[in-house]
Queue: 4 jobs
Job 1
Amino acid sequence: ATKVNQQTKTEIETEVISDIPRKRIGLLGGTFNPPHLGHLIMAEQVCTQLGLDRVDFMPDFQPPHIDPKQAIDAKHRVAMVQRAVMGNPNFGVELTEIKRGGKSYSYDTMVELHKRHPENQYYFIIGADMVAYLPKWYRITELTKLVQFVGVKRPGVKVHSSYPILWVDTPEIDVSSTLIRDKIAKHHSIRYLVPDPVCEYIEENKLYGKR
Ligand code: ATP
């Protein structure tokens, strides 16, 4: 009787899982300090070229690789990401790393997301500069089994990867958050380099020393 019950339970579980629509979700992890046109263009291209259901922008709480003091408060980065994705039905925001706090290891995040949505398939989007760092990522071998990495070229970055990467051809955009912060420091315009609502948010909150 136990065996039969066991079998029935497994069948029911399988049935329940297969009833949930399977989604192909792109994840664009980053510090978004601040988000810029490079992020939006790459996300839109990957989403449409791979036919994903959507791309979620996933701000980290604390990137494992840089000095946390360099990035502005998570609350501002989240607010800017929300404004950046506004109005595009292909885009969403994933706040798992912000809610978890601490250092944002992608492996921990993917274990959490897979537990929550075992039916989903995840495409982890990274710029070419990140590809070079993959061997240093926490539990990278296990992580490659949880996600499909998607690579996007970045000007001036040559890449070779020992991990499987699905490359998507997008226009190379020579914009970075560093460039935006530098422009603000020099009192140059950042209009058209970041979406208008992000530009307004930076001005209203006087971020990065913006006057
Ligand atoms: P910073 O200049 O502060 O290092 P960033 O512009 O690289 O920031 P992140 O938020 O760290 O922005 O980037 C998130 C992800 O998007 C990373 O995988 C990064 O490689 C990628 N990315 C950012 N800008 C571009 C771009 N212009 N072209 C391709 N990939 C990009």
Job 2
Amino acid sequence: VNTGSKPDISREKSAELYEKAKNYFPGGVNSPVRAFKSVYGTPLFIQKGDGCFVWDADGNQFIDFCASWGPLILGHNNAKVREKVTEVMQNGMSFGAPTALENELAELIIKNNRFVEKIRFTSSGTEAVMSAIRLARGYTGRDKIIKFEGCYHGHTDSLLVKAGSGLVTFGETSSAGVPKSFAQETIVLPLNDTEALKQAFDQFKDQVAAVIIEGIPANNGLLMQDAAYIEFLQGICKENNALLIFDEVITGFRLGFEGAAAHYGVKPDIVTYGKIIGGGLPVGMYGASAEIMGHISPDGGVYQAGTLSGNPVAMAAGIAQLTELLRSGFYKDLNNKTSEFAESIQRFATARNYKIKVFYIGSIFWIAFTDKDKIQTAADIDHNSMEKFKVMHRELLNRGIYLGPSGYEVGFVSAAHTKIELEKAKRAIFDSLDVVF
Ligand code: PLP
């Protein structure tokens, strides 16, 4: 039964705060997607989060699937994380000197992850990726980087580049302020395309320092790559003495403790992490073999630093969160919950002949308005379908479900989502889809 569109929730206080914020920040926000430009209404100003819920300034409660864009795999305000952070904070906030906490988080990561022997902590995913690129260039003595259309790696200059025309091209800058000469060092290829890779390595023989790819591309929908393609990618990098960088800022500690690299069974040369390792505080990280990491200063000539890198409070949050993830059965439970959730939305839509496809892996899901069985490249996405997402997003907010405010963004299930809330969320999604179609 189509229950019809729900009346809009009150956004009065959020609207007031947003008006104020516009005086202070471009677009009223500190990160563009938060401005709700591609969905209806004013951005919601969040006041509080607990478990799988958030509350906005008007007191509306939502089941949250944005999870601060991924870091909150245990949900909001997790007691273990909060207690550890509170304990560590009593001793001061930052020293700009080594602390035992850095060792503790590093040990948790390195002992349980076969892809890194040595690591560096940064304060964001962007910094981690930027440093990984510099390391690859310093290590190989080459300048060119290959990236993929549809992958996002943060807002570092050389990666804010999109595909130009033609199969193998230098990219075009995708932000004003990025020098053309930077884009000249970035080759942008379509995902899941072995021919394009071959052509690029032929054309730029002995010039490519690294290929960077998201573990599972999850910033432009969820673009599942063929396992054979990822294996091919690893092989062609090896043949050409180019490094393979896996950007696991989303997938790291999300698909499992060892991320997408373990999922595919490949061994990237450099891995970047962020989001989950900070337990909700600002932490990024890159790591590699001891040999490659030996090129970072002060041991080697590749410079990288940070006033707040390895910040003790952030380390404490990471330690508490990762410790929980190592509990036996953690990922199995979380991933099972997610597949049940995604599959039942798919079943509902299929039964009703609604053209949607729910892509999911681990605890990441993406509801695509499409009748394609596979969406593996940015070009496969139907941009007009985002109008349908907009309607669904509004209907979901009005039914107490918070998804990130863009149809290109994935959703995250956390350990704090219980069967009860997932059941409620499913009902709300069903009713919203009835309105959309
Ligand atoms: N890499 C990937 C795959 C990301 O998804 C993001 C952010 O969403 C980044 C890098 C940049 O991380 P941050 O936003 O922490 O700078």
Job 3
Amino acid sequence: MTIEVTQENLIKRLGPGRHLIVTDANVEAYYGKRFPGMDRFVIAPGEVSKSIETYERLIAYMQEKGMTRGDYLIALGGGVVGDLTGFAASTYMRGVPYINIPTTLLAMVDSSVGGKTGINMGNAKNAIGSFYNPTDIWLDVGFLETLPKREFASGMAEIIKYAIGFDPEMIQQIQAMDWPFDEMKNNREHIEALIIKSIAIKEKVVEDDFRDSGNRQKLNFGHTLGHAIEAYYGFKTYTHGEAVAIGMAYQLKQANQLGRLSDSAYETCMALFNKFNLPVDLRVPDHICGVAWHVAKDKKRKATHIHTIQLEKLGQLQIIPVDFTVFIDNLGCDLK
Ligand code: ADP
Ligand code: ZN
């Protein structure tokens, strides 16, 4: 399932051609020397690069290089690199193949199923995009040794979502991880297993959803509030995983206070967030009301209710439609 990402392995897989690695400056600095003979397009790190301008420069570079439909793009980086590269691959000459090599924990867990690609338009995330699958996804957890701790924790928030919402056996594995760590050592085994389990859960839920609709929404546990938190702060204050952790924590706290979730399950969840220093509340708790209104605006809702996802017990999520006024009220905010 995992593969060591080297120039040799890439060439073995791709054969000769005008292949191009797309990566960002941080990943290039750490790993560029692994690919001495391969052409690279290096973008600035961060969300700013998911822009039309970077997309245009990338396409221009591919043209200049004379890439045709048999040549590969290789996305080597986190979600930003993956989304941009996937979108360029899906549109250049109506589609060229690409290989996705995620180097962040979040990208390993999150972007490997579903084939979503895209770039932003101003503040509108993924306003332009497509569904397009890579021909391969290569997992090499060795990349995670250099990942900043905060980025690692962001990925752990998604893994915690899978653990508490779908597969409580994963919880022990998370508890057994060394944190913080500098070298993989005995973490490697746990992390690989957790990534593989998370991907398997996502695949299964997405697949089941073709038959019995609704389950897919459970993957959005913590995300309604999480997305609103990210947007409210202009995508600058919290990482995706931090925002989702806060979103989950709010739902968990409510469920616990309403007597729907046991104290011990609640505390188990909180301990997991704490282990990775993930936030469980906003730094300015009062902002939650602004965030709540963002949910309303975001959905441009015609409906009067919203689907909240709540944990009933470890491994069991419930989709509960809640009147929007109740949703606001439950967050301790006024309806004004
Ligand atoms: P995400 O996958 O969370 O969407 P990004 O693509 O924005 O995130 O990457 C998060 C940050 O981590 C960026 O600054 C990126 O340059 C950096 N990064 C990605 N992979 C690695 C790695 N393996 N080692 C060190 N830094 C990395
Ligand atoms: Zn997410």
Job 4
Amino acid sequence: TPPTIFVITPTYSRFVQKAELTRLSQTFLHVPQLHWVLVEDSPHKTPLVAGLLADSGLAYTHLHTATPKERKLQDGDPSWLKPRGAEQRNEGLRWLREDRRAPQGADSQQGVVYFADDDNTYSIQLFQEMRGTQRVSVWPVGLVGGMRYERPVVEGGKVVRFHTGWRPSRPFPLDMAGFAVSLKAVLANQDACFDGNAPMGFLESSFLQGVVTMEELEPRADNCSKVLVWHTRTEKPKMKREEALQAQGLGSDN
Ligand code: UDP
Ligand code: MN
């Protein structure tokens, strides 16, 4: 069997959550040997997410951990102020390390770990590209960082620099959606995790610095020439009329 791809997704309650998770889960249904680790940013598991997972047809693990209040983005804060999803990704890593610690058989430490936000758009081809990850594989991400795409630049089969609009001097100037890590590397580097206090743009670096060097990066997607994942963002729906009806006592409660 091919190595399992563990997809760690932070998610939080808002109007579009069910739509996002429906789209995501139905993309994942097209991918063989995928295990979805869905981590709610919440003090408890919600019935909405539990039900969606139970009906999804996917192999999954349902986790939760609430972002501490002082680290959480408040309504009206600019989105770049604090990193989002750091604690949830770390909770996913914690579960994986615990679950795979004791070898359960030859294949139990074979696998790939990918951090997939719930609002991005993923080609199913991306998962074929990452399946053979030895340590850390990388590829372009579309519609991110104020650019059509960001990407690692490859020369002679190696990543030599990064095409990015902003601070290319960061240790790993790439988006969360632009890399995958082997389960072996996750297990061999027990302390590698996301720093929820990392300054803007340094969250990915905070994790990757503990796992890999630039020279070791494995370029995928035709030497990083193809975009197979897009950092799309969903517009927050307006609820003006809903609220007007609520005020008249005519609102629907689902
Ligand atoms: N997220 C979360 N808690 C929050 C905000 C976001 O768990 O308070 C999750 C969100 O569901 C997504 C990931 O963290 O999977 C990244 O958040 P977002 O997509 O808003 O970040 P951006 O697109 O701005 O990078
Ligand atoms: Mn997003």
